[in-house]
Amino acid sequence: MADYPIAELGGKTPLQIANIPAMDSMAQRGTIGLASSIPPGFTPGSDVANLSVMGYDPAVYYPGRAALEAASIGVKLGPHDVAFRCNLVTFSRQGEKVIMDDYSAGHIKTDEARKIIEELGKKIATDRIRFYPGVSYRHLMVWSVGEYGMETTPPHDIIGKEISEYLPKGEGGEILRNLMAESQKVLKESPVNLERISQSQKPVSSIWLWGQGREIPMPSFRDTYGLQGGVISAVDLLRGIGITIGLETIHVPGITGYLDTNYLGKAEHALEALNHLDFVYVHVEAPDEAAHNGDLKAKIQAIEDFDSKVVKTVLQGIKKFKDYSVMVLPDHPTPIIKRTHTSEPVPFAIFRSEDEQEKPRKGVGFDESSASQSQIFIPKGYELMDYFLRRK
């Protein structure tokens, strides 16, 4: 949700413009501050950021994005396996240049994507290279006894750019480049692609391999914080983090990771889960996806939908519990102007049961400006969980 001031919005951010009474109320009556979820030296990704927010120091526990996603889809990595995120992407051409047109192949539906991954598995997989289907455009490739140290680039970081300089580099990079090239040959004749083209939908031009990782043991959330928790997300990465640290995966029908997700269902299932769990982590991807697409209107709409359908519902329903605490924050900024993640600190708001009687503070809202004016700053993002749980 976090962003930069935008001229089109009169120098304000989407959070300042959006109609978000529920989050504003949390900030006005509870606690607002800033937290740095991306440690120095780390690329600002959802993997690193969400590890921090969940209370795990990425400098100690970061295993690479794809290793976390492998846990989500039930892929057990061996000691010498390297997992790679496998996006289905769309290229376009400008003369001789090949451009990254869409990191999601038009947010391809999961059933279509599964058929494509299965086809690639039959035609280009080997005894050391295996493909596993995920959700929508997000899938997995596992390289047995594979290389790990090559340089790869997230496809959402290079939208509109020529791809050649962003292809995998370093030891093992040639094998990845060859796999991507082989996928393009298969995809040109794919029945799924031919049908998508006939329906004027974006075809899948290629796989894009990135985010490599190996399994790293992590202590459970219960052992670390003394609480039994759950996670709700449409994104394999978030579910994978949850599984890795022993959180219960809470399944919600109709969640997509996009603008059409079942916001209300996430809130209702979270409240229901709190009847047997101490803690629920609810993740919503829609504002991030809108920002990657450079769609300001959609980002503001996603923020407002999150506020009215998730935050408001939770704040109303959680009153059935005598004591409670609710925290809301972005995992990282995704500024519209950049269309990718950045490392600036993010605003957070905490509302507790004892804040019910507090009078709203004037001039405060849930936004970057109000948070920056607060005296509360958590420089090590993984310590925010301790702050939220009042352990520090």
- Cα radius of gyration in angstroms: 21 Å
Low-confidence stretches: none
For the report, how would you describe the main beta sheet?
A: 5 strands, antiparallel
Strand content: 15-25%
Q: CA-to-CA gap between the ends?
A: 27 Å
Overall shape: it is: globular
Structural class: alpha/beta
CATH architecture grouping of the largest domain: 3-Layer(aba) Sandwich
CATH topology of the largest domain: Alkaline Phosphatase, subunit A
In the CATH scheme, the class of the largest domain would be: Alpha Beta
CATH superfamily of the largest domain: Alkaline Phosphatase, subunit A
List the helices and strands in order: HHEHHHEEHEEHHEHEHEHEHHEEHEH
Helix share, percent:
25-40%
The average pLDDT score comes to: 96
- Domain unit count: 2
Helical segment tally?
15
Strand segment count = 12
What does this molecule look like?
With 392 residues, the chain is an alpha/beta fold. It has two domains: 20-62 and 218-388, 3-Layer(aba) Sandwich (Alkaline Phosphatase, subunit A); 81-213, no CATH class. It contains 15 helices and twelve strands. Strands 2, 3, 4, 5 and 6 form a five-stranded antiparallel sheet that branches. A four-stranded mixed sheet has the order 10-11-1-12. A three-stranded parallel sheet has the order 8-7-9, sandwiched between helices. Helix 5 packs across helix 10 (236-244). The two termini are 27 Å apart. The model has no long low-confidence stretch (mean pLDDT 96).
